[in-house]
Design goal:
By secondary structure, the protein is of the alpha+beta class. It has one domain: Alpha-Beta Complex (Cathepsin B, Chain A). It contains 7 helices and 11 strands. The strands form 2 sheets. Strands 1, 2, 5, 6, 7, 8, 9, 10 and 11 form a 9-stranded mixed sheet that branches. It has a two-stranded antiparallel sheet with strand order 3-4. The longest helix has 16 residues.
């Protein structure tokens, strides 16, 4: 509770308090719900960057892809550092729906269990997850290969070629918050990798203070202006994978304009 009080002081427009993670030390929380992220290794697989045009988020503007029928319900990764696979899978789901497919829950377990270039519950990169899906010939439906690694143990690979729903045709990086705004305004949701070390006791509101030691991957689905309640702070709508009982029904609001949590540094999208 002292740590939550300190975060409340640093984030006057957010709320931190008791939740399902309150009995974990920061070290335990990092071990079970976050992951290592090697920035230098990421640069070796960073996809080509999409050109950026347009402006930053305008005060007073709000938009979210969740209302457009291309975002699946919030998932729960459990005590497994598989956020990278969830972030990648959610992005594939969204762009498959945007391309005209039916919004379908896909198998993040396939990526966790079968992608040999990443590390299952010990972490990975959305970019290499996309590469795995493309090389494998597609990704199964969630129904065909459901997620069972929530206890920290990934099952053996049980990929079923006949259950493939879609494949990844290509991937791109999104450059900074300007690129993030452009993509969210007109393209679709974005996979982002961030510093979530301060998110453990988040309950709601707009995060305005955050580190840049990336340890978690999620999905940005839109942006919101919360004036005057939050002093006019524009915020990214970020979908997490810790279940709907965490945060604002599974989401967190991250203030724009400061590259908080490194939100604009490791962002990617796909085409299917």
């Amino acid at each position: 509770m002292e740590r939550a009080a300190d975060l409340n002081a640093k984030n006057p427009y957010a709320r931190f308090g008791m939740n399902q993670f309150s009995d974990l030390s920061p070290e335990e929380f990092t071990k079970y719900y976050l992951m290592p992220f090697d920035k230098q290794q990421y640069e070796t697989i960073r996809p080509p960057t999409k050109s950026v045009f347009g402006e930053r988020v305008h005060q007073g503007s709000s938009f979210d892809w969740g209302s457009k029928g291309v975002v699946t319900p919030v998932y729960n990764q459990g005590q497994c550092g598989s956020c990278w696979a969830f972030s990648a899978t959610e992005t594939i789901e969204s762009y498959y729906a945007l391309a005209g497919g039916t919004l379908t829950s896909l198998s993040m377990e396939q990526i966790v269990s079968c992608d040999q270039n990443d590390h299952g519950c010990e972490g990975g990169f959305p970019s290499s997850a996309y590469q795995y899906v493309q090389s494998e010939g597609g990704i199964d439906s969630y129904q065909a290969f459901p997620y069972t690694a929530e206890n920290g143990q990934a099952p053996g690979c049980q990929f079923v070629q006949s259950a493939v729903v879609t494949n990844v045709a290509s991937q791109q990086s999104i450059s900074g918050e300007q690129g993030l705004y452009q993509q969210l305004s007109s393209g679709g949701p974005v996979s982002v990798c961030v510093d979530a070390s301060s998110w453990q006791s988040y309950e709601g509101g707009v995060l305005t203070s955050c580190g840049n030691n990336v340890d978690h991957c999620v999905q940005a689905t839109g942006y919101t202006n919360y004036s005057p309640e939050y002093n006019g702070e524009s915020a990214w709508n970020v979908r997490n994978s810790w279940g709907t009982s965490w945060g604002q029904n599974g989401y967190i609001l991250v203030a724009t304009g400061q590259d908080l949590c490194s939100i604009g540094d490791y962002a990617t999208i796909v085409s299917t």
